[in-house]
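Entry type: protein chain
Record version: 2
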Amino acid sequence: MDKKPRKKRAKPAAAAAVVVPTETLVGACKNGHADAAIELIRRGVNPNTPDGDGELPLLVAAVANLDGVVEALLNAGADKDRRNPLGCTALHGAVHCGSRAIAERLLRAGADKDAKSNDNRTPLYLACVLGHEEVADILLRAGADKEARHSSGMTALAAAAETGHRGVAELLLKARADEDAVDANGWTPLMRSCNRGHRDIAELLLRRGADPSIRNDNKLTALSMAAAGNHADIVELLIRSGADKEATEADEHYENVTQLYLACRDGRTAVAKALIRAGADVEAGTRAYTPLLIASKGGHTEIVENLVTAGAKTEMLSGQNKGKCSSLLLAAKAGHVDTVKVLLKKVKRSQLLCTLSYPNLQKWTPLTIAVSHDDNEIATALAMAGAKFAEAPVSFVADALLRRDLLRYTSAWLFMLSTIRPELPTHVLRGFPHIVRFIVKCSLPHWMVFCANNE
């Protein structure tokens, strides 16, 4: 009888090689090595052991968005509220990476929803700074303190207004956060949104009832912030919402100056136009300058045009510069050709005739100033508009001859002299035929203009 062949026994499969992690638990979490971190936890590594910098496994895993590792660490007994050297907990880490899942897991495990870092940042405050709307929503639903303050005194709503995160701002306002909470420097959330130019958040706060009249410790309002940042759309929004367009503040020289004056001084055209459209007082300035005078001095032509159109007076009628300067004189003195031309074009004829010959304290008129600066373009524009030299003092000629290099004389200068003392140009030029040749060759048209206007 034939024997059946024996079956060969299968050799047992070789056991899978176990990879022994060479990293520390914190290192594995930092590098995103979830499998290595979980293996270390399984091997019994203490889940609360910090690294050399004091960083904790649970916090680092949360920052790295390693949800599985966070779960394993919690199951292994990791302290959910233990802090790193900056005072941050794992919940701060979950907020930092914007992980809704990890935040929910930590909150279910009983993590402190209002834990404060060394600078008093709560998880909710951090979520508002970073704009993590979902995480902020979870924290608010869990009852996080919406009025908890950073070390600067800022609330979560102020942080959202500062950083421009409308979504979290809406969540906070729905949760009845204080829209007028002031920080350590007296700033409100509305001020912060206006300062940064976040119109949508400013509108949100104003609809909720934020007060635009509150002043901070430097006596500035939300309108001051918006105007200083040249945010004309927010300026208009604030005025429509009841902000005082004539509210004053202090600058480096004066106690009370309006936003229109400051915009004219600094050349913030959009803001100046918005304030003029809103009916701001175009004469409210300082003891030395009105808005039109300061804009003319700075050569802010578009602002000057809008002020003149709005009826601003071209002379200083009161204060320390009364009878000393006009907008035309200041623009001519600073050499702002376009501003001079706008004034000549826009100012009413009856007012212009007075302005053209309006002298300063030293009896200098716009025309004599332009000529003394060798500014042919301005001098010609003034002469064509009807300016004359009849008011110029005799000393003006003598001082000019002593001060100036004859080789730099222009046609405008020489014709100014001829209108005051007809014999002077002939006397002066007698020894300088090259100047005569220059005038005849290049400047005759300008000379004729001056002659025609000074007959």
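Comment: Residues 87 and 234 are 38 Å apart (CA to CA).
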